[in-house]
Design a protein that fits this description.
By secondary structure, the chain is of the alpha/beta class. It has four helices and five strands, in the order βαβαβαβαβ.
Length: 108
């Protein structure tokens, strides 16, 4: 199954749970793409805590060949550069994710 996740939050628990589900889906051999939108583009700025190991979850997801895309306009509005884990993407990329996914889930 092809799953599209739209992550619009920088709330650690929301992000952590979205990543946990994405990892579980990748381990079950589903195609998973995450599109970061709005506050979601701050993913790599979220500090790890005792309860929410965000950076480890991002690495685990990408190590499982999961794909993360980040809204370029949202990155620019936050004066934030793209990164290897979160390349700049467009609304056309988000539309493609929605069109190609069997299911789309939104977190945030």
């Amino acid at each position: 199954m092809k799953l599209g996740f739209i992550l619009q939050s920088n709330e650690p628990e929301h992000v952590w749970n979205a990543l946990r589900l994405a990892i579980t889906a990748r381990k079950a051999k589903h195609d998973v793409r995450i599109f970061l939108l709005s506050e979601g583009v701050e993913l790599e700025r979220i500090p790890d805590s005792e309860n929410f190991d965000i950076s480890r979850k991002v690495k685990e997801f990408t190590d499982l060949q999961g794909q993360i895309l980040a809204c370029g306009t949202c990155l620019k509005s936050r004066l934030q550069p793209e990164s290897a884990a979160c390349p700049i993407s467009t609304m056309t990329d988000l539309l493609r994710l929605v069109e190609e996914s069997d299911k789309v889930l939104t977190f945030g």
